[in-house]
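Lab notebook page, bench 4
Experiment: in silico fold of construct C2
Operator: M.H.
Input chain length: 113 residues
Purpose: comparison with the prior construct
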Amino acid sequence: MDQQVTDRRGSGVARRAFGFTALVHFLSAACFLALVAADLEGCDRGDGAVLALVLAIALDVVLAVAVLVVMSVRRPGERRQVLLGGAAGLILALAGVVAAAVYIGGLGSGCPV
């Protein structure tokens, strides 16, 4: 009986870690969209979008690692569940990076004159 309660609590930790990392990934996606809309400087139309993608990925990595460290410190006996939830959240991040790369690849090249 005690094992079932522990398993359920562990899966709740994994779901919570997934939710927090998903929130971080959506925040980074919003940062990317805001920076693309700001039309950052660059000779090529894709320069600003690439810079926005790099900044959003950096923000995502820093915040996701911070969230996972805080969660694993607060739940030292359930670090595996925290990492499992964080790893599941990486699927969302990879999908977002692929979508952004496809968008950037579709932009025309060359300096506007």
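Observations: The mean pLDDT is 81. Residues 2-104 form one domain.
Next step: discuss at group meeting.
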